[in-house]
Structures are given as structure tokens and as C-alpha cells.
Automatic annotation (TrEMBL):
Subcellular localization: Cell outer membrane
Cross-referenced InterPro entries: Beta-barrel_TonB_sf, CarboxyPept-like_regulatory, OMP_b-brl_3, Plug_dom, Plug_dom_sf
Residue ranges annotated for the TonB-dependent receptor plug domain, each copy included: 145-224
Name of the protein in question: Outer membrane receptor protein involved in Fe transport
Alphabetized Gene3D superfamilies for the sequence: TonB-dependent receptor, beta-barrel domain, TonB-dependent receptor, plug domain
Signal peptide residue numbers: 1-20
Domain of life: Bacteria
Length: 803
């Protein structure tokens, strides 16, 4: 209770700013008489430009003397307030880029109609980079070369984003927090990106990439935040959109199977119908977004060679044919009983079914002797249900609001694996069954108060998360599976947090300073019969500051300096104690003694813009303590590899990023994004405890890497567009090793038909079939070299219609 009282007290002292919106700035204030202080109704309020005295907006005050001017473009203006018999009031006014609401306070009019003053105005050009340079905003429907695929696929050619092992990386770092509609959700994972490849891009309105989050966001995720916004229409009456896309992948075999296994998936079908409906009338707005995704894919096709210190060599292939079916629906209702209050109830449901069929043969060096063949079947179903209740109260001052929300998420993971182990001496069968039910409840309260030169915001959050998990093993003949490592484990997480921020802005500078204070209490209860691990957990109370200072020498140039402190808490699957096959001789195991890693980030950014383009550059440095990484070890007398997460010590990530946008001609525009960074991990020594204590020591690792992305867009006659995208990823560090360079090219074409209501597209990803993953990993007693020829080339066609 002392901690909670401390956090609540901190909330009252720490006001916070949120991100600027894209709908313009709303100005408000009150007009009073200078002498008697009485409010003045029906006063004329006009906003004009300075250069040509052009009218921008105007209104008259209400009976309470209040005025509101909405949708004002960022810049410097002259505000004129006039009333017969009174001196006209004029003042300089900056509508900035950091807050959508400005409170001009009380304006007093004096009796004397002869005094005039002047003010200036400047306009600011908007593009994909938010004006405060903290995030980029993208619309999946504009990504023609990736249309018809998943959210994960749509993100692969976005500036600043790369992929590795199905995970999103920002600036060479996979510690990314993924939100849905501004909130964490079990569909994307609380701290991971486990299901982004199964969210249809057709369901998404926009994607926000936030490199420098403010204190309003959870402190988790040192690489940054990706916020996925679902579609929601607000037009009056009944309207909607239907769509259908289909495609084929793996049109030919890139590398033939090793002898004696079932064929790789070929000509894999992709089907994605979608439906969006909205009905708005009077005080009610109802909405529905529904998608179904059927996807066959050659999910993995990795050829590897393991070289042991004793000179023995094993050649193997991991082939995984996958069929995924995902149904997703989001629906809800908005009710506005009056102008000051809004209630929203919404729900999201998703069912994801994964069926894997795979083979893993093991041979000697010249492929003359097969020592074993593993065939496996996976049957996994995931259910997610999320319910949200939101209440917003708008005070009479525009932008002065109180938001309260409650969100509840239930996520079930029902997973079954069946393995057949065929050797010259015997045939054995192994299987296991896992059931995990995740329940998360979040309560949020946010208070926003506009100011004359900025904004205050403060709030609190309370989270309770509970994940009971049960694992059952059914070992067959000569199995290496450990039946004593099964049983149950319960994960419990409680997080109260408060945040606050203050922002100040004038013509030349912007200052933002915030603080988030979190108390985290994690308990991990383990089956007392477990042969290695016992119950464990951790707790901390810690502040996470964020600061930004910007200098604007003129209308087209801006320099910004950022600092923030972040944390990456281990996800439940990272500490899950049950061993699980990555492949027959590679097992991954969680580590309940894993602890959070803490990161401090400094960044200097510069943006300049001109009539037809812009340039953004940034230099950054991150220092991380207790770095989380997965360590692979073997135990004496065995060839089995155990992958276990550990805290490896201090690491560093620093680099440069550049984004260049240019509209070269009326029919051609392009974007170039380039990143150069260096990842360094200090020398460390850890102990993998499962199945027996094994010590691993690594020397200091350091590698400079980077990537370049080019996106070009051609506008042709007859409302036709072509998009061309190419990506180059330089070699990079992975746990205990390196990954080689990668290269791919995408192409898409789209045409608007039926008077703009209809749209057709065709596209292809990795059209030259060049993308493959090559790795080299060094463990204690072995070296693993591998190349994955998984499915990367997919051709799609689609149609959509608005009504």
C-alpha cells in the first residue's frame, strides 16, 4: 500500500503530453470584459495569416464567452478578437505540432476602438514522419507490393523495419513492444510478436512506428513500439468495404530434399476475404471488421551441418509444411449521449489453427548413412477474446478530457505435438500436450489539460496478469524427452504504474519532459516435483524518464535531442520451464531466474523539408544492462543442444539512420531508408542449469551491420499505380554467431475502377527468389552452419469494393 500511495502521489506531480494528432489543432479560450470581468457572448474571433492577411477561421463566442476554432494547420498566426465599442485584441499565436489542443486562456477586451497590433504565420508541411520526429505513420493499403498478405509481411519493406526469425527488428534490435489500438494484446503477445504473421493487413487502418515513446506508454520494449490500428469507419449512414485476395507461393523447389522424406509444399494457396461494415446515426455508431485467412506455406526448409570438436559431422534438413487458418472479428458500438460524454464498448475475437507436417533426416558427411529420421505433426489452436469499455468526458474547454478504460483479454494456447523417431535399430514415438490460459486485466485513467503553450497529461494504470500452464509428456522407446520436466507452472504479474509529462512550445523551441514510475511484481510458481527448477520471481520499483528538446531555426529545419529509459521484462514463454523441441536434437527451455534488462537511449535527430521532399537523419546510442539472449550448450556425453535464455551482461547498440523522401516528377516519387549500426556484447560467463549445470563462456562480440531500402512509386494514366521495393540487409550478429547478408525485391500494381469505389491489384514478393537465411553458430563443443530456403516468393491478386 505504501508503494501504491507513492505511485499515486507521483501521478499528481508528473503531468504528461501525448502525441500530436493528424486532424489539426483546436484553439479555445474565454472572452471577458477588462473591468467588470463579465464574460462576453457573441464576440467575433478571427484567425488570419500575417503575410497576406488571409482569413483562416472565424467564430463567435457562446453565451458563456467561450470560443473554439478547429482544424488549424500548425504554424504562427494572428488572432483578432473584436466587439463593437471595444479595442480590437490581437496576439501572436503558435499552433504547434506537439499537441492537438491549445488553451489560450482568458482574453480581456477594453473599451476603446482604436488600437491594432499584428502577428505572423508560418505553415508546416506534413508527411509520414510526425512533426515531433518520434514516430512514422504508414497505411498498409498504400503498400501495393505487399497487399493481400499479413501485417508482418506488410511491414517488411517499411523504412526502419527488418525481420529476423519471424520477429520485427528496429535498428537491429528485436525488443519491440507491439500494440493493437494503443494497447497490448495477446494476439501479438505481451512482449513478443508471435502472431503478426496471422493478422491480415486488410484489417488494418494504419501502422505507427515509435522509436522514442513518451511516458504515457508502458516502459517495456527498448527498441521502440509498433502500434497497429484496426479499421473503424465513422461516416454517417450505412457503409462498408468488401475484399478478396488470393495467391500462390513456392512455385518451384529451391533446393531438393535430402533422401527419403516427404515432398516440400509447392504452389501453396493463400486466400483472404475481408468485410468492413459501419452504421452511424444520431448518437450511435456501430462497426464490424471481419477477416478470414487461409495460408499454406513452406514455413521452414533449413539445411545444416553440425561439426563437433571430436571431428564427427552431422548433416540434416528441417522441413516444415504449414497450414494456417485464422478468423478474426472486431466489433463495437460508440454512444454519445451528449457533447461532453462518450461511451465505447468493443470486442475482438480471433481463432488461429496451425497444422505442421515435417521431416528431419540426419546423415553422415557424405549422405551415405542415415542415422535417424524424425517425422512430426503439430496441431495447435489459439483462441483470443478481448473486451474493452471506454468512457471519455470532455470538459467545456476543447481538449480538456478525462479518459477511463478497462480491458480484459483471454488467450488460450492448446498445443499438441507428435513425433516418430525412425532409426536402423528401432522406431519410437514421442508426444506432448500443452495447455495455457492467459488472462489479463488492465485499468487505465488518463487526464489531459491543454495550456496556452503546450499541454499537461497525467494518468495511472493497473495490470493483473495470470497464466496457468500445464505440460504433459508421453515418451516413446529410447526417447530423450524428460517426463519429469513436465507438470504445471503458474505465472502471476501485477503492475501498478503512474505517468506524467509536461510540454512547452514556442516559435523556436520545444521541450518535453516526462516520467513513468512502475512497480512490477512477478511470481512464478513451479510444480514442486520438477527436477531442475523451483518457484521463482522478481520485483522492482523504478522510474523511467523521457526528455526531448527541439530547436527550430526556421520553418523547414528542426533539431531534436531525445533521452529515455526503457525495460524489457522476460515474457512468460522465456521463463517457461518445460523443454520443447525446436528439432529432435535441439531443445529450447525457459529460465525462471531470468531477469529484466534495462536500457538507456540517447538520440539526436535532424529533419529538413522542401516543397517536394524531406530528409531525416538520426544518430543514437543504447546501453543495456543484463542483456537477454538465448544460449545454446551441450552436456558431456551427449549431442543434444539445449537453447536457454540467459542474462548475458552489458551490451551496446549505436548507429545512424537516414530517410529521404522525394517527389521527383508528378508521376514518380521515391523513398530511400538506410541504417548503419554496431551491436556489441561484452564477454560473459553463464550457467545453463537444465538438464545439468553447464558453464558457457563467450568472448566480447562486436559487428557493424546495416540495411538499405528503396521504395519507388509510379502514377500512370487511368488511375493506375506501380510500386517497386528492394531491400538489402548486411551481415549481423545473432546469439553465439552471425547471420549472412540478405536481398529481396517486391513489385506491385494497383488500379482504381468503378469510379473509385473498386480496386484491383497484383503483386509479387521476392520476385527474383534471392532471399535465404544463412547462419553460423558456435557453442561449447560444436559449430552449426545452416541455410534456410523457406518460402519467400508469393504472387497475389486481389479486389475490393467500397459502398
Amino acid at each position: 500500500m505504501r508503494i501504491i500511495r507513492y505511485l499515486l502521489f507521483t501521478a499528481l506531480l508528473c503531468p504528461l503530453l501525448t502525441f500530436a494528432q493528424d486532424t489539426g489543432v483546436t484553439l479555445s479560450g474565454i472572452i471577458r470584459e477588462a473591468n467588470g470581468q463579465a464574460t462576453m457572448p457573441f464576440v467575433n474571433v478571427v484567425l488570419k495569416t500575417q503575410t497576406d492577411n488571409r482569413f483562416i477561421a472565424g467564430t463567435v463566442t457562446t453565451e458563456e464567452g467561450r470560443f473554439i476554432l478547429k482544424g488549424i494547420t500548425s504554424g504562427n498566426y494572428r488572432l483578432e478578437v473584436s466587439y463593437v465599442g471595444y479595442i480590437q485584441h490581437q496576439q501572436e499565436l503558435l499552433a504547434g505540432t506537439l499537441t492537438p489542443f491549445l488553451d489560450l486562456g482568458t482574453i480581456h477586451l477594453k473599451e476603446d476602438p482604436k488600437i491594432l497590433n499584428e502577428v505572423k504565420i508560418t505553415s508546416v508541411r506534413a508527411d509520414g514522419l510526425a512533426a515531433q520526429m518520434d514516430k512514422r505513420i504508414f497505411t498498409p493499403s498504400d503498400n501495393i507490393s505487399r497487399a493481400g498478405g499479413s501485417v508482418l509481411q506488410a511491414m517488411q519493406n517499411l523504412p526502419g523495419v527488418t525481420m529476423q526469425d519471424g520477429k520485427i527488428m528496429l535498428r537491429g534490435n528485436d525488443k519491440v513492444a507491439v500494440l493493437i489500438d494503443g494497447r497490448q494484446n495477446a494476439i501479438t503477445g505481451f512482449g513478443s510478436q508471435t502472431a503478426l504473421d496471422n493478422i491480415p493487413a486488410s484489417a488494418i487502418e494504419r501502422i505507427e512506428i515509435i522509436n522514442n515513446p513518451t511516458a504515457k506508454h508502458d516502459a517495456n520494449g527498448n527498441a521502440g513500439i509498433i502500434n497497429i490500428i484496426y479499421k473503424k469507419n465513422n461516416q454517417d449512414g450505412f457503409n462498408g468495404k468488401i475484399g478478396l485476395s488470393t495467391g500462390l507461393g513456392a512455385l518451384w523447389v529451391r533446393k531438393e530434399n535430402l533422401p527419403g522424406i516427404s515432398p516440400q509444399y509447392q504452389a501453396t494457396p493463400k486466400i483472404n476475404p475481408s468485410l468492413s461494415l459501419n452504421y452511424r446515426k444520431n448518437k450511435l455508431n456501430t462497426f464490424l471488421q471481419a477477416d478470414w485467412l487461409y495460408n499454406q506455406t513452406l514455413n521452414r526448409n533449413e539445411f545444416a551441418e553440425r561439426i563437433y570438436d571430436d571431428g564427427s559431422i552431422i548433416k540434416q534438413q528441417v522441413k516444415r509444411n504449414r497450414t494456417t487458418t485464422v478468423a478474426t472479428a472486431k466489433t463495437g458500438i460508440d454512444w454519445n449521449p451528449d457533447e461532453q460524454n462518450t461511451f465505447t464498448l468493443s470486442g475482438l475475437f480471433s481463432r488461429e489453427k496451425i497444422a505442421d507436417l515435417g521431416d528431419i533426416p540426419y546423415f553422415n558427411q557424405d549422405l551415405s548413412i542415415r542415422s535417424r529420421l524424425w517425422s512430426f505433426v503439430e496441431d495447435e489452436v489459439k483462441y483470443t477474446a478481448t473486451a474493452s469499455a471506454i468512457y471519455q468526458h470532455k470538459f467545456k474547454q476543447p481538449g480538456h478530457v478525462l479518459n477511463t478504460s478497462f480491458n480484459y483479454t483471454f488467450h488460450r494456447e492448446d498445443e499438441k505435438y507428435f513425433f516418430t523417431n525412425i532409426t536402423p535399430a528401432f522406431t519410437g514415438t514421442d508426444s506432448y500436450k500443452l495447455l495455457s490460459d492467459e488472462q489479463v486485466a488492465d485499468l487505465n485513467v488518463d487526464y489531459i489539460k491543454p495550456l496556452k503553450h503546450g499541454r499537461l497529461e497525467t494518468g495511472l494504470k493497473l495490470r493483473h496478469r495470470y497464466i496457468p500452464t500445464n505440460m504433459e509428456f508421453f515418451p516413446g522407446a529410447n526417447s530423450v524427452i524428460d517426463p519429469n520436466a513436465g507438470g504445471w507452472a503458474n505465472y502471476k504479474e501485477t503492475i501498478p504504474a503512474v505517468y506524467g509529462n509536461y510540454i512547452y512550445e514556442n516559435k523556436s523551441i520545444e521541450v518535453e519532459a516526462g516520467l513513468r514510475v512502475e512497480y512490477v511484481n512477478v511470481k512464478y510458481e513451479v510444480n514442486p516435483d520438477h527436477n531442475t527448477y523451483q518457484s521463482d520471481g522478481y520485483n522492482y520499483a523504478r522510474p523511467f524518464p523521457n526528455v526531448r528538446f527541439s530547436w527550430k531555426p526556421d520553418d523547414r529545419n528542426k533539431f531534436s535531442l531525445f533521452y529515455n529509459g526503457r525495460v524489457d521484462r522476460p515474457n512468460e514463454v522465456d521463463i517457461r520451464i518445460f523443454p520443447k523441441y525446436d528439432e529432435p536434437e535441439v531443445l529450447k527451455v525457459g529460465n525462471p531466474s531470468l531477469r529484466p534488462q534495462f536500457t538507456n537511449t540517447f538520440e539526436l535527430g535532424y529533419k529538413t523539408s522542401w516543397t517536394a521532399g524531406s530528409l531525416y537523419t538520426a544518430a543514437y546510442h543504447k546501453t543495456t544492462d543484463a542483456t537477454i539472449t538465448r544460449i545454446a550448450t551441450i552436456v558431456p556425453g551427449s549431442t543434444l543442444i539445449y537453447n536457454i535464455f540467459q542474462n548475458a551482461g552489458r551490451s551496446y547498440n549505436y548507429g545512424l539512420e537516414m530517410n529521404f523522401d522525394q517527389k521527383a516528377t508528378p508521376w514518380f516519387s521515391f523513398n530511400v531508408n538506410a541504417a548503419l549500426y554496431k551491436n556489441t556484447l561484452n564477454a560473459f560467463t553463464i550457467e545453463n542449469r537444465y538438464p545439468v549445470p553447464t558453464v558457457f563462456t563467450a568472448a566480447r562480440q562486436s559487428l557493424t551491420s546495416g540495411n538499405v531500402k528503396f521504395n519507388g512509386r509510379f502514377k500512370l494514366p487511368a488511375q493506375t499505380e506501380i510500386q517497386f521495393s528492394t531491400i538489402y540487409l548486411a551481415p549481423d550478429l545473432i546469439p553465439q554467431g552471425r547471420i549472412a547478408s540478405r536481398f529481396s525485391t517486391d513489385l506491385g500494381i494497383r488500379r482504381h475502377i468503378q469510379k473509385g469505389k473498386g480496386e484491383i491489384f497484383m503483386n509479387g514478393t521476392d520476385i527474383f527468389n534471392t532471399l535465404r537465411i544463412q547462419r553460423s553458430v558456435t557453442g561449447n563443443g560444436f559449430i552449426l552452419n545452416s541455410t534456410d530456403f523457406y518460402e519467400t516468393q508469393v504472387f497475389r491478386i486481389g479486389y475490393s469494393y467500397k459502398f
